[in-house]
Design brief:
The protein is of the alpha/beta class. It has helices at 3-10, 38-44, 83-97, 110-114, 123-127, 148-160, 172-188, 217-238, 254-263, 271-276, 281-297, 311-314, 316-329, 339-345, 348-356, 359-367, 382-396, 412-415, 421-439, 493-507, 536-543; strands at 24-31, 52-58, 70-75, 102-106, 118-120, 165-170, 193-198, 242-247, 267-268, 303-308, 405-410, 445-450, 460-465, 470-475, 478-483, 522-523, 529-530. The model has no long low-confidence stretch (mean pLDDT 92). Residues 71-434 form the Phosphofructokinase domain.
């Protein structure tokens, strides 16, 4: 065991005041309707729609100990730093509220629930994983509980194992699945309650109703920003390369924005802005070429460009094409699929867009699909697509400048990093909230902690109904109830700070090198002792600039 691992395992995450002992009270607020399409969602989820918000408040009276519970837990989807602390927080709080409870970890994600493959999580086993990255304590998976057979299998496991509750740790699709299970178990008369936990480094699972961030975002952005900061200084030292850095975030640009705020790159592309401005690919190329040419004129043939991996899909002309491919042309396609055959079946305007995309990218669009059956945007080398376009603009303008591009993709490097002090406490608290909710027989909710820009003891624990996050979207050509993804707020303070500073960042070398994550006590700018460092985005949204 390394000194690093030993130190981290001894670190004690901090909890909100309401979760520090066994004294607490649950308070219910007003009913929370779905964020959109309420009537349609209520028809699909009659038992779990329009439920009230719940807050967990401290009490001087100790709560009565509960009878032992049997709780299951699942990791669903991609990894995110801090997941193991959700398990630990869930386990510890269960033992505190209901001594001798059993925690069953279903192996390999939802499939483990359907196949009833699990292990009993003990204090000794979990000790190895406290404050550590990864999901390898029980593994994860991207299987969906979708068919009648799947729901029957999940219900059978719940009945056989006599589960009092089930915690699903995942993103928007996984928590949509949690809501489906909660509704299904009620209809079947099962005692198993279902609670979701917000996990995704992309931070597109947020809500002004109570989810300020999803866990893993803080840590992964710190990891990426350290690497970007290193490249900033490399560019400044070598003075001959442009580094094009693609970052995770297919559906939203939160990671790119956060890393931009931490490192001050010369170009920071935000997909939501490009979509709002209805920019074409050519306009994006020209915007980038303008900055590259201006820096070259000032003797700076180097720079840093940050790109969200889903950028190509935010460009409206491409988005229209992808929507047509995903929902009209490719579903049910029979036989060989080639670019030539697809082009023949596209409307004239979409054919022009399709044929303007580099041939290698076109091939990826047709052959690579994600777990939902859609185009695998995350596999597209967007940085090469952009550089190719910039080079064409430079050629058209007959600019005599030096332009050497280097490519990077920072994705998997951040998903299993050792969690920051913020994510360590945040995840431990989310697990603790889930235990309290299940101990009180609550189902169909998402575990929440608010007021996250403050010290952990001032965080506010509670829960919101999963259906309150839902809307109706087209999936596989059908109207489907899903949790709504949340995009970068173009009217928000973090994006506003980028807008105010990006012209200066483009022309000058304002690079910042954040350095590695530190799990130590430090002082903030106001001289207060703090034991966590939350993301720039969280602090700016809460306090302003």
């Amino acid at each position: 065991m390394s000194t690093f691992e030993l130190y981290r395992r001894q670190y004690n995450p901090l909890l909100p005041a309401s979760l520090q002992g066994t004294g607490y009270t649950l308070k219910k607020g007003e009913p929370m309707a779905p964020v959109a399409d309420g009537e349609e969602i209520a028809k699909q989820f009659p038992m779990t729609t329009n439920l009230p918000a719940i807050s967990i408040e401290p009490s001087t009276e100790q709560s009565k100990l509960l009878e032992p519970l049997t709780i299951g837990v699942i990791f669903s989807g991609g990894q995110a730093p801090g997941g193991h602390n959700v398990l630990c927080g869930l386990y510890d709080k269960l033992q505190q509220l209901a001594p001798n409870s059993k925690l069953l970890g279903f192996l390999g994600g939802p499939k483990g629930l359907m196949d009833n493959k699990h292990m009993i999580l003990t204090k000794e086993y979990l000790a190895t994983f406290r404050n550590m990255g990864g999901f390898h304590a029980i593994g994860s998976g991207r299987d969906k509980i979708a068919s009648t057979k799947d729901f029957d299998a999940a219900a059978n496991t719940a009945a056989v194992e006599k589960l009092d509750g089930l915690v699903i740790i995942g993103g928007d699709d996984s928590n949509t699945n949690a809501c489906l299970l909660a509704e299904d178990f009620i209809k079947r008369g099962l005692k198993t309650r279902v609670i979701g936990v917000p996990k995704t480094i992309d931070r597109d699972l947020i809500s002004k109703r109570g989810i300020e961030t999803s866990f893993g975002f803080d840590t992964s952005c710190k990891v990426y920003s350290e690497l970007i900061g290193n490249l900033c200084y490399d560019a400044l030292s070598a003075k001959k390369y442009w580094h094009f850095i693609r970052l995770m975030g297919r559906s939203a640009s939160h990671i790119t924005l956060e890393c931009g705020l931490q490192t001050h790159p010369n170009i920071c592309l935000i997909g939501e802005e490009i979509l709002a401005k209805n920019m074409t690919s050519k306009q994006v190329f020209e915007y980038m070429a303008d900055i590259i040419a201006q820096r070259a004129a000032n003797g700076k043939n180097y720079g840093i460009c940050l790109i969200p991996e889903g950028l190509i899909e935010f460009i409206p002309e491409n988005n229209k094409l992808f929507d047509y491919l995903n929902n009209k042309l490719l579903p049910g396609w029979q036989g060989e699929i080639t670019a030539e055959l697809v082009a023949q079946k596209l409307p004239a305007d979409l054919k022009v867009t399709f044929e303007s995309i580099p041939p290698t990218i076109r091939t990826q669009l047709l052959l690579d699909r994600d777990p939902h059956g859609n185009i695998a945007i995350s596999q597209i080398e967007t940085e090469k697509f952009l550089v190719s376009g910039v080079q064409q603009v430079i050629k058209e303008r007959e600019l005599k400048i030096k332009f050497s591009a280097l490519y990077h993709f920072f994705g998997y490097e951040g998903r299993c990093a050792a969690p920051s002090a913020f994510d360590s406490s945040y995840c431990y608290g989310l697990g603790s909230v889930a235990a309290v909710l299940l101990g009180n027989g609550i189902t169909g909710y998402m575990s929440c902690l608010k007021n996250l820009s403050e010290q952990p003891d001032k965080w506010i624990a509670g829960a919101i109904p999963l259906t309150s996050l839902m809307n109706i979207e087209m999936r596989h050509g059908a109207r489907t109830a899903v949790i709504q993804k949340q995009m970068v707020d173009l009217a928000g303070r973090p994006f506003g700070f980028l807008v105010v500073n990006r012209e200066k960042w483009a022309e000058q070398d304002c690079y910042q090198q954040p350095g590695p994550i530190q799990l130590i006590e430090c002082q903030d700018v106001e001289g207060r002792n703090v034991v966590y460092q939350s993301s720039v985005t969280l602090l700016e949204e809460a306090r302003g600039l």
